[in-house]
């Protein structure tokens, strides 16, 4: 048997003398690696953090390997999303963890101004900006501020009350190993506000942006999806298709929770479109003037009720 280095040979002899297995089942490693991939971790970043080549990583995830080296299994078992991100030198990472950290600080009473002064900038873009990725530098910036402020209450009861009323989960609702995972949920036994249910607004925003992402939402979070999509101008049928329910369900949800719609109501088919008729009358009059007195055309317009007249 040949070894790549003298250290490998020494490690093998030591494990053999202690009766320690050199290889372990690959299934726990496969599940952990798949967990990272499901959290949108790039293969290159996961390969660098795990110490596996990209082909070897893919072979484990695809189930082509039944065993892996024990040290690989032990190393992968200790990996976290935050650790994977911290080992990257540059690039982009999912912004879900950064948004949750900002929300948690707001729930502690730290205002946006305080968070910005502590070193985290561009908070509106992180909380509600388009896209699901942020730069690695921005993620580290917010994580450093979160680590600095999350262990002490903030100075603003108003900010704390507003954040809790929106269901923002405080720091104690998250584990460091799960806060960056888009599929993780906050601990429901952590109190938020009296009568308020914990709402993961990052999951809500993700469900609004992606069809089929609302499967694991709580009822309160689905209501927020309806609220957000209605505010964006989506119709009840469009929202229903997005959430895989009939549009009557969306209508009842909006009425029950006083959610307005920005969709312009369609005119009654039995009621004349007075604006359109006005436009036709003006167009016909202009045509009569250009055609001369012998080619005058007549456009019949019904009597317009007084309450539908346009104020000039």
From TrEMBL:
Source organism, top-level taxon: Bacteria
Organism: Flexivirga oryzae
Protein name according to UniProt: Uncharacterized protein
Lineage, highest ranks first: Bacteria, Bacillati, Actinomycetota, Actinomycetes, Micrococcales
Positions of region (Disordered): 150-185, 283-312
